[in-house]
Amino acid sequence: MRYEVLCLVLLGLLVAQGTGEDCPHKKAATLLPSFTMTPTATESTASSTTSHRPTTTSHRNVTVLPTSNSTATSSGPTTSTHNPAVTTSHGNATVYPTTNNGTAPSPGFSTIGPQPGPTPPSPSPSPGSKEALGNYTWTNGSQPCVQLQAQIQIRILYPTQGGGKAWGITTLNPNKTKVQGGCDHAYPHLSLSFPYGRLTFGFKQDMEQGTVYLNYMAVEYNVSFPQAAQWTFSAQNSSLRELQAPLGQSFCCRNTSIVLSPAVHLDLLFLRLQAAQLPNTGHLGPCFSCTSDQSLLLPLIIGLVLLGLLTLVLIAFCITRRRQSTYQPL
Ligand SMILES: *[C@@H]1O[C@H](CO)[C@@H](O)[C@H](O)[C@H]1NC(C)=O
Ligand SMILES: *[C@@H]1O[C@H](CO)[C@@H](O)[C@H](O)[C@H]1NC(C)=O
Ligand SMILES: *[C@@H]1O[C@H](CO)[C@@H](O)[C@H](O)[C@H]1NC(C)=O
Ligand SMILES: *[C@@H]1O[C@H](CO)[C@@H](O)[C@H](O)[C@H]1NC(C)=O
Ligand SMILES: *[C@@H]1O[C@H](CO)[C@@H](O)[C@H](O)[C@H]1NC(C)=O
Ligand SMILES: *[C@@H]1O[C@H](CO)[C@@H](O)[C@H](O)[C@H]1NC(C)=O
Ligand SMILES: *[C@@H]1O[C@H](CO)[C@@H](O)[C@H](O)[C@H]1NC(C)=O
Ligand SMILES: *[C@@H]1O[C@H](CO)[C@@H](O)[C@H](O)[C@H]1NC(C)=O
Ligand SMILES: *[C@@H]1O[C@H](CO)[C@@H](O)[C@H](O)[C@H]1NC(C)=O
Ligand SMILES: CC(=O)N[C@H]1CO[C@H](CO)[C@@H](O)[C@@H]1O
Questions:
Q1: Hey, CA dihedral for 96, 100, 102, 108, is it positive or negative?
Q2: pLDDT digits (tens, 9 = 90+) for 81-115
Q3: What residue spans of 93-133 are helical by DSSP H?
Q4: Are 146 and 138 in contact (CB under 8 A)?
Q5: Which DSSP category does 71 fall into?
Q6: Lysosome-associated membrane glycoprotein 2-like luminal domain location, by residue (predicted)?
Q7: Atom of ligand 6 nearest to the CA of 185
Q8: pLDDT of residue 320
Q9: 123 Cβ inside 6 Å of ligand 9
């Protein structure tokens, strides 16, 4: 982690200074944690606003035509500016690929690469902007029972026509997302419908522990990723225990992922969620921060403690040396 490195560097500096120079007097080490977020969101947006879909046309025969002849250089960071992003549209859902080639990257991190060059013009917000941050609330009457604020990304590992696999990513456009839900006391749920897809979050209250957590999650999505050999995706998992927070508090996380199945992941960025005992004010309860943030804090604390110990040792060393030096001239 960054903080471990930071702490180590600081320790190293202190040691170097302490041994090389005379004893440091009144050294003030200031640690300023700086959270720099670099959202590499590959925004995907629906290109049309019409949500009317003829119910009779159940055409599943969709040919995916990349706009450029995709003899894609396997790794082309040098020629990236001349490479237009391949966009395919099916059912009005435009999807920008993360990888042109059918080689399956390891699930997780490196797949969310930045788009080469500017993304094609689209009527909706630019990638990574705050506009993709959704605020989804379900209320029963006047009492809100589930509120979820997040930028939601769906990541799907899909089979390609070449026989490989690739990760596709879409980001939900909050403006085109409809919220439904239920306020059953022990099992509140939230359902988000968007063009050709639906997400369902089922929560569960654990009265004994006084917590609430995400217990059930379902994704259904019809989307055509580049060179995909499959267009309908669905996954559900009813044995989750994620996003857990004490009753009355909201679960906050800058970046967390839910693994529904090996092939379907959900990324929740800038997440703030509360699914039980919401205050009536429209605001959420105090933040209960996710473990990934805490795991960042831990190295920092350890580093600070070590720093303190080291400072003590140095001071002791200084004192003893000064005493020696006062007696030595004799
Ligand atoms: C979210 O975290 C994953 C790794 O945990 C990282 O690859 C990704 O870039 C992060 N996304 C943002 C927007 O910070
Ligand atoms: C799918 O499209 C191809 C070419 O457009 C056509 O040859 C084939 O018959 C179509 N299949 C179906 C099931 O419509
Ligand atoms: C794509 O490129 C390959 C090799 O360069 C060529 O054989 C093929 O005809 C091209 N396809 C199109 C549609 O241009
Ligand atoms: C993907 O890249 C590999 C090697 O980088 C190559 O062998 C393969 O043909 C490529 N596949 C496609 C569909 O371009
Ligand atoms: C989405 O909503 C935001 C905030 O209400 C608005 O500024 C933006 O224009 C909307 N975008 C579209 C495409 O409707
Ligand atoms: C939700 O509202 C309906 C009627 O508006 C009511 O019958 C139901 O008891 C309410 N549920 C909860 C959990 O408050
Ligand atoms: C996805 O497509 C399947 C089959 O065509 C259809 O049954 C399902 O309702 C679609 N789902 C959504 C969310 O549009
Ligand atoms: C559901 O999620 C749990 C916890 O992440 C995981 O162990 C389990 O394999 C998942 N079930 C399926 C069917 O993927
Ligand atoms: C989210 O929506 C709720 C209910 O519509 C509203 O009270 C709250 O102020 C909104 N929060 C933000 C950050 O927009
Ligand atoms: C860009 C695109 O595909 N637009 C289509 C969106 O869906 C409506 C209704 O199905 C079509 O009329 C548009 O052509």
A1: negative
A2: 344 444 444 444 434 444 444 333 333 333 333 33
A3: none
A4: yes
A5: -
A6: 133-278
A7: 13
A8: 87
A9: no
Task: Give, using CA atoms, the residue closest to atom 2 of ligand 9.
Answer: 135
What integer pLDDT is reported at residue 259 of this predicted model?
96
Whole-prediction pTM value?
A: 0.56
Instruction: Choose the residue to mutate in 131, 149, 178, 194 for probing ligand 5, maximizing ligand atoms within 8 Å of C-beta.
Output: 131
CA 144 distance to own-chain centroid: 25
The CA 142 to ligand 9 mean position distance, Å, reads 13
How many residues belong to the chain? 330
Pick out the chain residues at pLDDT < 70: 1-131, 291-299, 326-330
Ligand with minimal distance to 134 CA: 9
Which atom of ligand 8 has the smallest separation from the CA of 237?
1
Place of tokens 């604020």: 149
Residue 100 has phi, psi (to 5 degrees) of -75, -35
pLDDT at residue 35, rounded to an integer: 39
Q: Are 264 and 219 in contact (CB under 8 A)?
A: yes
